[in-house]
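Researcher: Quick test of sequence recovery. Tokens follow.
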């Protein structure tokens, strides 16, 4: 066990909503997060390749997807291996499916 004293929790840790900011790295060897990168689906670049560099995409609707345990685990493991979020994987998969199945004419 470490003999270091834990920092005390105090009022200085409380910040108004929207006022929080990241702290600078403490040591030069500290871990840093790598940016997410798009991957190609079926040989084509993701439709939102530019957005992955700029930040999250704006969205118009939210959707709930219910998965069985095996599919959920496979999705999470794929995300870890590809350094992609579930949202990014599912959006790329939907884009690829929509490219093959165009919207029916009415």
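Model:
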């Amino acid at each position: 066990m470490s003999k270091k004293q834990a920092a005390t929790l105090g009022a200085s840790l409380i910040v108004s909503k929207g006022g929080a900011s990241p702290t600078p790295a403490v040591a030069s060897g500290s871990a840093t997060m790598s940016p997410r990168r798009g991957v190609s689906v079926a040989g084509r670049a993701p439709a939102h390749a530019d957005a992955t560099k700029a930040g999250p995409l704006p969205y118009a609707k939210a959707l709930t997807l219910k998965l069985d345990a095996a599919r959920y685990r496979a999705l999470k493991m794929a995300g870890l291996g590809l350094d992609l979020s579930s949202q990014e994987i599912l959006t790329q998969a939907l884009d690829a499916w929509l490219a093959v199945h165009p919207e029916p004419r009415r």
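DSSP finds three helices and no strands in the chain.
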